[in-house]
Specification:
The complex is a heterodimer of chains A (180) and B (222). With 180 residues, chain A is α+β, with helices and mostly antiparallel strands. Chain A contains five helices and 13 strands. A six-stranded antiparallel sheet of chain A has the order 5-6-7-13-12-9. In chain A, β5 and β6 form a beta hairpin. The two termini of chain A are 14 Å apart. In chain A, 38% of the residues are buried. Chain B has 222 residues and is an alpha/beta fold. In chain B, the strands form two sheets. In chain B, strands 1, 2, 6, 7, 8, 9, 10 and 11 form an eight-stranded mixed sheet that branches. Chain B has a three-stranded mixed sheet with strand order 4-3-5. In chain B, β9 and β10 form a beta hairpin. In chain B, α4 crosses α7. Chain B starts with 6 loop residues before the first strand and ends with a helix. The chains are: A alpha+beta (180), B alpha/beta (222). At the A-B interface, α2, β8, β10, β11 and α5 of A face α3, α4 and β9 of B.
C-alpha cells in the first residue's frame, strides 16, 4: 500500500505533458523491488508501473487511439494487457470492415478467457496487425507500438471528443483499481 | 465507497448445453443493461464435448459420428480455452458477473475461479493447485481436476469453471484434454477413494450440496 502511494505521488510529481515534441526525459519508473531511472523518448505519464502515453486518446474499455491525419491506429492499453494476462490469440477483422465507436471489432484470448476489444472510433479498417497471428504476445510486451491492433480511416472526427485524455484516463484507472 | 453487490444463484440441475448457452446469452444482455444483478448458474451437463474460440478440433481424437454413438454432443463455443468434456457429476459454475463494475481483469477473475476450486478440493482433503504458466485450471500433482473457459463481453463474464466431482473419466480418453497431451484427468472421487460415498450413491442432492458450497465460496471470493 505504501509503495503504491509513493508510486502514485512520484507519478504526479513527474507528470509531463506538452503540446510540442521534446527531447528525451529521464523518468522514474516504479517496480515493487525498487526504482530504476530510464530515458524515454516520448513524454509519458506514469501510473504505478503501468504506462499511459501522452498524445493518445482513451476509451473506458481500455483501448487507445492515435489519430494521425486520415489514419487512426487502435490498440489496447498497458493497463488492459496487464489485467488480461499473457495473450495467446488475437482475432482481428478483415480490412474493409466497418467499425463503430464502442462496438466490438475483435477478440483477444488470455488465461483461457476470450475478451472482446472495442473500437474507440467509427470508420473503415484499412490495415490489421498481421504480426499478431504469430506473435500475439506483442500486445503484452508493446501495447502502444508493435502490439497495435488495427488502423482505421475515421468516419467521424467528433468521436475523439468523447474519449479521455491521458490525465483523465489515468484517474479513471486509479478509480477502477480502488473499487476492488 | 463500495456499493453493496448481490449475487443471484440459480441451481439448475442437468441442463442441455445449448439451453445453458442461450440462457447465458440472455443473462449477459440483461446484465449489460443492468436489468439483473450478478448471477451465478450452478448446473451439470449431459455428456458434452466443447471447443473454444480457437476451434482446436485436432484435439478431438474421434469423429463426430463416433462421439454421437457414445451418447455425447459436440459444441463449438466463443469461450477461451481448448477442448474439454462435461458430463453428469461434474459440477459446473457459470458466473455472469460484471468485471467492469468491480474493476477486475480477466487474469484476476480466472485466479479467483481457480481459488474457488482449490478451496472446494481442500474441503475433501485434496490438495490442488493452479497449473504451470499457460496451463490454467487446477491440478492434483500432474492430474487435472478442474478446468476453466471464460468469455468476457462488455466486461461481463459467461461460461466459467468445471470441477470433476465424479464424472465418467473414460470420456476424456477421446480428447487431448485442454490441449495438454501428457497429463491425466482426475476427479474428487478418484483422489479420495470412497471419501465421497454419498456423491456416488445419491448424486443429485449431494452434488447440489457441493455446488451450494461452491456457490458460497464463489460469493465469498467475489
Amino acid at each position: 500500500m505504501a509503495l503504491r502511494m509513493w508510486a502514485s505521488s512520484t507519478a504526479n510529481a513527474l507528470r509531463i505533458s506538452c503540446a510540442s515534441k521534446t527531447p528525451a526525459f529521464a523518468l522514474s519508473r516504479c517496480f515493487s523491488s525498487g526504482t530504476q531511472l530510464i530515458s524515454f523518448p516520448l513524454p509519458i505519464i506514469i501510473f504505478c508501473k503501468l504506462m499511459v502515453l501522452d498524445g493518445l486518446k482513451y476509451a473506458s474499455s481500455h483501448e487507445w487511439v492515435k489519430h494521425e491525419g486520415s489514419v487512426a491506429t487502435v490498440g489496447i492499453t498497458d493497463h488492459a494487457q496487464d489485467h488480461l494476462g499473457e495473450v495467446v490469440f488475437v482475432e482481428l477483422p478483415e480490412t474493409g470492415a466497418s467499425v463503430k465507436q464502442g462496438g466490438g471489432f475483435g477478440v483477444v484470448e488470455s488465461v483461457k478467457a476470450t475478451s472482446d476489444v472495442n473500437s474507440p472510433i467509427s470508420g473503415e479498417v484499412i490495415e490489421v496487425n498481421s504480426k499478431l497471428t504469430q506473435t500475439p504476445g506483442l500486445v503484452n510486451s508493446s501495447p502502444y507500438e508493435e502490439g497495435w491492433l488495427i488502423k482505421v480511416k475515421p468516419s467521424s472526427p467528433s468521436d475523439l471528443e468523447s474519449l479521455m485524455d491521458p490525465q483523465a484516463y489515468t484517474k479513471f484507472c486509479e478509480e477502477e483499481n480502488a473499487a476492488h | 465507497m463500495k456499493v453493496p453487490r448481490s449475487l443471484q444463484i440459480w441451481r439448475l440441475g442437468i441442463v442441455n448445453y445449448s439451453d445453458a448457452l442461450k440462457l447465458q446469452e440472455k443473462l449477459v444482455s440483461d446484465r449489460k443493461i443492468h436489468k439483473i444483478s450478478d448471477t451465478l448458474l450452478s448446473l451439470q451437463h449431459p455428456p458434452t464435448y466443447t471447443l473454444g474460440k480457437r476451434r482446436t478440433d485436432h484435439n478431438l481424437l474421434i469423429s463426430e459420428a463416433e462421439l454421437k454413438k457414445l451418447g455425447a454432443e459436440l459444441h463449438y463455443t466463443q469461450r477461451g480455452g481448448d477442448i474439454t468434456f462435461h458430463g453428469p457429476h461434474q459440477a459446473i459454475l457459470y458466473p455472469i458477473i460484471s468485471l467492469r463494475d468491480i474493476g477486475l481483469g480477466a487474469r484476476n477473475y480466472v485466479e479467483k475461479l481457480e481459488s474457488t476450486m482449490i478451496e472446494i478440493a481442500s474441503l475433501y482433503g485434496v490438495k490442488a493447485c493452479p497449473g504451470q504458466k499457460g496451463e490454467t485450471g487446477i491440478w492434483v500433482g500432474d492430474r487435472k481436476i478442474g478446468a476453466i473457459g471464460v468469455r468476457i463481453q462488455y466486461g461481463i463474464t459467461s461460461h466459467g469453471l468445471a470441477f470433476n466431482i465424479d464424472p465418467d473419466l473414460n470420456y476424456f480418453k477421446h480428447i487431448v484434454p485442454c490441449g495438454i497431451a501428457d497429463k491425466d484427468v482426475t476427479s474428487l472421487r478418484r483422489e479420495t477413494g470412497n471419501g465421497i460415498y454419498e456423491a456416488v450413491e445419491k448424486p443429485a442432492p449431494h452434488v447440489t450440496y457441493s455446488k451450494e458450497h461452491q456457490c458460497h465460496q464463489v460469493f465469498h471470493l467475489f
